Amino acid sequence: MNKYQRLALFLNRVGQPDYRLRQISESIFSQKEINFAKMFFLPLELRRELAEEFGPWLSIKAIRKDFSSQAKKVLFSLPDNNRIEAVSMTYRNWQSACLSSQAGCPLGCVFCATGKMGLVRNLTTDEILDQLLFFYLKEEGVDTVSFMGMGEPLLNDNLFEVLEVITDKRFFNISPRRTNISTVGILPNLKRLIDVFPSVNIALSLNSSFPKQRRLLMPIEKKFPLKKIFPILNYHIRTNRRKVFLSYILLSGVNDSTQHASALISLIRSQGNEAYLYHVNLISFHPAAGLTFKPSSPRRTDFFKNQLLRAGIGVTKRRSLGLSLQDACGQLTT
Ligand code: SF4
Is 151's C-beta closer than 6 angstroms to any atom of ligand 1? Predict the structure, then answer.
């Protein structure tokens, strides 16, 4: 059970009126005060009880911060001393938080620094929410939330509880439409996500339209192949009329050829009536220690992009605000 649920139950148990939860929530999310001892609107005895029951509200500690003009990368220490990272980005006064769902990741995509670590463990609901709360307390609110940090969010069932709290009007109150889940396509939970949170934005980490090559880049292709993922995404488009994003990290000489662009165009066109709601995000690769790939040149990137545009496919070159921090979402490591 997460601490927001525990808080509601606790207030109920000690006989507090219903408005107490709203008061405390306002203190946390509007006044940005998380210290129960300083919530002077509460009776003294209740302040003491809350501090005793919950201890410090943030369960994770920021131990290193790297700031560039538009991105803030924070290294957090978890209660068991494992470490994770999260990034907050600002673009035209728009605050976006990129969160981790796992310490490490078991999926071993060969271009990913996190994948090199292997899985340490899934993060608890509170540990994920606390990354967001940390930025909430520091920034002028958070406008969008992305699960593109360390780990594969759909391998962690706690994600569903996290989404409930994030979208809960009493707490973070962030619209599901401003929530982005980046996944390699973990099928059972992808279908569950679509059914339970039909409005969240889904980005499939694609990176190659050739199944054989995708399997080399992303071993999970063997278990959850594109040919099984696309019918689920098409079901989402048909049922919920939501755009689906295809993330494509451009790796020089690996997946950025004319043939790769043509294969991507064919893959999207082969989705028939649903093809028009697929949108490609081209992402530049960030070299990291232990990874031998190189980013595609700006010229090659533009060429790739123009091929898609000429074919009538929606495509965006993603601004990567994490660049100056030597990292970007999906490529984090501690
Ligand atoms: S790209 Fe995502 S799924 Fe693949 S290893 Fe990295 S964190 Fe895991």
Answer: yes
